């Protein structure tokens, strides 16, 4: 199975993960400062800014696209709970 790097720019940490890993799956483990409001019934708080490698993330689903619009997210932002790593990527909290 292919492995790729996720770099969390806010904490200067890079971790290698298998292809298809969602950003949320490792963000909390490494102490990234990404809020996860879903634990408090506030879906859509885990917005990250993709600094490099946007093309190396899964395509946004309709659900993700709608939530990003509702949250007035900027272009290049993604939801950490939805975006799957398909190549090297660098993110930070939005």
Summarize the structure.
The protein is an alpha+beta fold. It contains two helices and five strands, in the order ββαβαββ.
Helical proportion? 10-25%
How would a crystallographer describe the biggest sheet? Answer: 5 strands, mixed
CATH superfamily: Beta-grasp domain
Lateral strand order in the biggest sheet? 2-1-5-3-4
Integer average pLDDT? 92
Please report the first level of CATH classification, the CATH class: Alpha Beta
At CATH level 3, the topology is Ubiquitin-like (UB roll)
Terminus-to-terminus distance: 30 Å
Global structural class: alpha+beta
Number of domains: 1
* Helix-strand sequence: EEHEHEE
Residue share in β-strands? 25-35%
Which spans have pLDDT < 50 for at least 5 consecutive residues? none
Architecture overview:
Helices cover 17% and strands 28% of the residues. The chain is an alpha+beta fold. It has one domain (3-93): Beta-grasp domain (Ubiquitin-like (UB roll), Roll). Strand 1 (3-8) and strand 2 (13-18) form a beta hairpin. The N and C termini lie far apart (30 Å). The relative contact order is 0.30. The mean pLDDT is 92.
Key words describing this protein structure:
alpha+beta, globular, Ubiquitin-like (UB roll)
Secondary structure topology:
Layout: E1 3-8, E2 13-18, H1 24-30, E3 47-52, H2 62-70, E4 77-79, E5 89-93
